[in-house]
Amino acid sequence: MKKILIVDDEPNIVMSLEYTFKKNNFEVFIARDGHEALEILKNQLPDVIILDVMMPMVDGFATLEHIKKDERLRHCKVIFLSAKNKEKDIESGLALGANLYVTKPFSVKKLVEQVHELMH
């Protein structure tokens, strides 16, 4: 079973993504900020990480920098999911090593398709 970590501080987004990915046969892990995500990543190696940019404590950009430094997590595909939709934000996210940058509002169905594409 594929594993996905969803990191977002908006409960509605987390709930809809968790429900959808479970229906698509993913094992789902949830973190509400970057610090929580890094704690989960000590024990779990997800195939895909969906990462919000603007979060309390540790933001998405800082979280991705930690992920990229960890040898065990090199295989993880990272998708930024953010309301920050300026060209500069998107470029920063991709420059840090994200595989994809999706702006909010977004289509859950399309996001699931993008996750499947990334994994193949």
How does this structure look, described?
This protein has 120 residues and is α/β, with parallel strands linked by helices. It has a single domain (2-119), classed as 3-Layer(aba) Sandwich (Rossmann fold). It contains 5 helices and 5 strands; from the N terminus they run βαβαβαβαβα. The chain has helices spanning 11-23, 34-41, 60-69, 87-95, 108-119; strands at residues 2-7, 26-31, 48-51, 77-82, 100-103. Helix 2 (34-41) packs parallel to helix 3 (60-69). The longest helix is centred in the N-terminal third of the chain and has 13 residues, at 11-23. The two termini are 14 Å apart. The model has no long low-confidence stretch (mean pLDDT 96).
Throw out a few tags for this protein.
120 residues, alpha/beta, Rossmann fold, five-stranded parallel beta sheet, 22% strand
Morphology call:
globular
Mean pLDDT: 96
How many beta-strand runs?
A: 5
- Give the full name of the CATH homologous superfamily: Response regulator
CATH class: Alpha Beta
Major sheet, described briefly? Answer: 5 strands, parallel
> Nearest-angstrom radius of gyration?
13 Å
Please count the helical segments.
Answer: 5
What is the subunit arrangement here?
Answer: single chain
Strand content: 15-25%
What is the H/E string?
A: EHEHEHEHEH
Query: Order of strands across the widest beta sheet?
Result: 2-1-3-4-5
* CATH topological fold name: Rossmann fold
List the domain count as a whole number. Answer: 1
Give the class from helix and strand content and strand pairing. Answer: alpha/beta
Indicate the CATH architecture: 3-Layer(aba) Sandwich
**Terminal Cα separation, in Å?**
14 Å
Q: Helical proportion?
A: 40-55%
Low-confidence stretches: none
GO molecular function, one term: DNA binding
Keywords: DNA-binding, Phosphoprotein, Transcription, Transcription regulation, Two-component regulatory system
Domain Response regulatory: 3-119
Pfam family, one: Response_reg
